[in-house]
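DATA SHEET
Item: assembly model
Revision: 1
Owner: S.N.
Input lines:
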Amino acid sequence: MKLLEDRIREEGVVKEGNILKVDMFLNHQMDVVLFRQMAKEWKRRFADAGVNKILTIEASGIGIACIAAEEFGCKVVFAKKTQGKNLDGDLLTTQITSFTKGRVFDVIVAKKFLGPEDRVLIIDDFLANGCALEGLISIVKESGATLVGCGIAIEKGFQAGGDKIRGMGVRLESLAIIESMDGGKLTFREDGT
Amino acid sequence: MKLLEDRIREEGVVKEGNILKVDMFLNHQMDVVLFRQMAKEWKRRFADAGVNKILTIEASGIGIACIAAEEFGCKVVFAKKTQGKNLDGDLLTTQITSFTKGRVFDVIVAKKFLGPEDRVLIIDDFLANGCALEGLISIVKESGATLVGCGIAIEKGFQAGGDKIRGMGVRLESLAIIESMDGGKLTFREDGT
């Protein structure tokens, strides 16, 4: 998606260790004009999928997921990160290793919000090694819902997550795929849009 | 706001210890149709305020803040909760005591996202004792921005936060104010809308 690639080029900052900072518009300050265009693009790509629930994970997935939910005409559920406390009620749970934060989170969704009647689109802001996405996929499977696919804003195509998720047979639509950011120079994968 | 009060009556669950669970539509599952109506109501109430930035705090403020930002035609910044790690860069910081989670968070906003040119509306889902809101207000003051007011979804009117914030001279617009939930019976404050 050219609009998003342009914003990453203009306002993204590449830091040492293959870190891309996009806090100007995506995950600290949030540009909802851009979010609306991203949401319309996910809707275009998943128009035929019968999505009736969006699943995301706190915190920075929530904004894009809410705007996308208006396009799909459905509700959002966000998975909560906990650290082993206050786990009461009927819960879907998994664990996610965060490499950036250097720890393991329990991730929970109340069972009553995902079930066999749901056709779920997972939305998140970043895909790198894929741990968060694998966790959300396992929660969808545990719930008995149908996973229709995953919509990601920015995929780091040089890390293993994208191949791993696509290798599982999951439909994965990333709006911008970074092939390389060696030496601070951003190269995007051609996506034909 | 009658629409929100009705949803709280229909889908809210009162638990022991004056806890109100609204996870069906506000802070775990999120009903963006309702969020859009709430956003329009905040826009109506703050139509004259020249809002050009919305500030919220992760996680459950982000969804309502993003939808509201479309109504106001501005960007959102969300404050991040940390626990003393990774505090780099030029930051506005404060501390917030969470009674529900029983701990103190450092709360941060990058300085580059709030400054004297900003007219800030703070949006959050709940107001009870007011600690989170006081923290966000202190961040706005530290930044040199103008605070135009606070838009809250649900205020627990029987706790001290609302009086405290209004007593500071801050314009506070809560869409539903609960006067009492003794014995599980919800009573709302009349707001004339």
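QC remark: Chain B touches chain A through 28 residues (CB under 8 Å).
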